[in-house]
Specification:
3 domains; ATP binding; Transferase(Phosphotransferase), domain 1; Phosphorylase Kinase, domain 1; transferase; about 60% helix; 23 helices; alpha+beta; about 525 residues; globular; 9 strands
């Protein structure tokens, strides 16, 4: 532990705790999960880490950094820390079957992560609920890649226990092969577990378990799940890997497209609520500036600690439904008492370390996280529609447009992704009426719009930093000082202006996304109506 701590500290990381998954450490107030690997120099492994460090995806845990301790022959991999816990923990907490939309939603997010890493030429090698995590705001992230776990064997059977074998595909045992299709099977096993709270395949011994996976009865789902949903799972758990759908084909299923459309709409609505709360922060702070707190603290020596506590409480009022106003009341009381005993440095430290600042930053991070996720979801819908049209229509090279519908290709494609007759008919109707090119352009625009949001959010983060550092006894002086030169000297009002400017920019981004979402028609099927009823 001493050597490990020394190595991490040398790289700027302070150990906070140890978990089964690695070491939790902090650096510059951010928290990370660091995995420690005892491996020899492995060019393939190093190359994989370098690829992972380049991937930025809302459903893949970011690999931030990596470094080696040559003396200890140890390799450290630094990843984002997920405060929402693992899927395995959530399954234990649930204690009941998931609704179809929730189970499908998590599976779609897993599928998008798998498609991304498969396109990069990588394999996960250990896809289990223990290696799937959630951010603080509930976004699913895939982590625990096999080689980061310490395994360098492609079939991964020499280094895993029954907990991974439960999710292993038949071809791993019969043909000793492991590829992208094997991970689709693992995802199917997880989907079954989400719906039943039980393993798709289980047995008393490893030998019996393997036998069940190879030739045992197909696991069924409870009656509450739709036949189309059950058919999709059955195709994912097809024992013939050649007939098993790819991640792209699963994302092209009508259920999946409908799920992503609904997720985009509901998330945009949630972001609008958060944005309204952000504006309420500015309104509350302006009221503080114009008289509420000033009146309470007027006259004589101003209690700096009380003033700061009041302001911090009022900032959070919109996010905590008024709970922080209790803090405000305490702050005002201290201020009236005139306790100007704390030094500027103590006040700054108090505010910087407060949970209030973390709460504000959490709201901003959630906005950034989810707006990027919506952009990716819209891109996935566009990609899926383009793939379906490409599979089922022949191309007229003279005008570079889709022309003849290929009945034979359509007949092969539908069953590949578990489409029943109703879904095939509905999807065919959709392809006939929608402008795929326009949707593709809109989806690409969504990605660019999300990038604009990142700039506004970065500016707001900077404003938060400046505000909390500058909020000391000098602030009260600036509040009471007249603006003879017409410039805003109060840090409170500077912060208010920053919030409102960022909110206006983010509103523009959100309005663009809403417009793009409305341009993508939903598949009109009964499952969407049922999902709306569940909400």
């Amino acid at each position: 532990m001493g050597q490990e701590q020394s190595t991490l500290e040398k790289n700027g990381y302070k150990i906070e705790s140890e978990t089964d998954n690695g070491v939790v450490a902090t650096k510059n107030s951010d928290r990370y999960l660091i995995r420690k690997l005892k491996i020899s120099t492995d060019a393939e492994f190093i190359a994989e880490i370098e690829i992972l460090k380049t991937i930025t995806h809302p459903h893949i845990m970011n690999t931030k950094n990596s470094f080696e301790d040559e003396d200890q022959n140890t390799y450290y991999v630094v990843m984002d820390y997920c405060q929402g816990g693992s899927l395995a923990e959530k399954l234990k907490e649930k204690g009941e079957f998931l609704q179809e939309f929730e189970a499908l939603s998590w599976t779609v997010e897993m599928c998008m992560a798998l498609r991304t890493i498969h396109e990069k030429g990588l394999l996960h090698r250990a896809l289990t609920p223990e290696n799937i995590f959630f951010s603080k705001s509930g976004t699913l992230l895939v982590s625990g890649f096999g080689k980061i776990q310490g395994s360098s064997n492609n079939t991964h059977l020499d280094t895993v226990g029954n907990e991974v074998i439960n999710y292993s595909a038949p071809e791993v045992f019969t043909e000793e092969t492991y590829d992208a299709k094997s991970e689709i099977w693992s995802m199917g096993c997880i989907l079954h577990e989400l719906c039943t709270q039980q393993f798709a395949f289980s047995a008393e011994t490893t030998g019996k378990l393997i036998s069940k996976i190879i030739s045992g009865p197909y696991p069924s789902l409870p009656d509450q799940y739709s036949s189309e949903f059950c058919e999709l799972l059955r195709d994912i758990l097809n024992r013939d890997p050649h007939s098993r759908p790819t991640a792209c084909e699963i994302l092209a299923h009508p259920l999946t497209i409908t799920c992503l459309s609904k997720k985009s709409k509901t998330t945009a609505e949630h972001l609008q609520t958060q944005l309204n709360k952000l504006r309420a922060v500015a309104d509350n702070l302006e009221r503080v500036h114009q008289g509420t707190t000033i009146g309470s603290l007027a006259g004589g020596v101003i209690g700096a600690v009380g003033g700061i506590t009041s302001i911090v409480g009022l900032i959070l009022a919109p996010f905590t439904l008024g709970a922080s106003l209790v803090v405000t009341g305490i702050g005002v009381g201290v201020g009236v008492a005139g306790g100007a005993t704390a030094g500027v440095s103590n006040i700054t430290n108090m505010v910087n370390q407060s949970s209030d600042r973390k709460a504000i930053e959490s709201i901003i991070k959630e906005f950034e996280e989810q707006i990027n996720a919506v952009a990716v979801w819209l891109q996935e819908i566009s990609n899926s529609l383009q793939m379906i049209r490409g599979r089922c229509y022949s191309r007229d090279t003279s005008n570079n447009e889709d022309s003849n519908f290929n009945q034979e290709n359509w007949a092969r494609f539908g069953p590949t992704v578990g489409m029943g007759l109703g879904s095939v008919t509905e999807l065919f109707r959709l392809l006939r009426v929608v402008n795929i090119g326009k949707i593709a352009a809109q989806a690409s625009k969504a990605v660019r719009v999300a990038e604009l949001a990142t700039g506004a959010i970065s500016t707001l983060f900077l404003a938060v930093d400046i505000f909390f550092i500058a909020m000391d006894a000098k602030e009260i002086h600036h509040i009471r000082q007249k603006h003879t030169d017409g410039k805003t000297r109060s840090e409170i009002m500077k912060f208010v202006q920053s919030i409102r400017q960022a909110a206006d920019e983010l509103q523009g981004v959100l309005d663009e996304l809403k417009c793009i979402i409305s341009a993508i028609p939903l598949l009109e099927d009964e499952r969407e109506l049922e999902w709306q009823h569940m909400d």
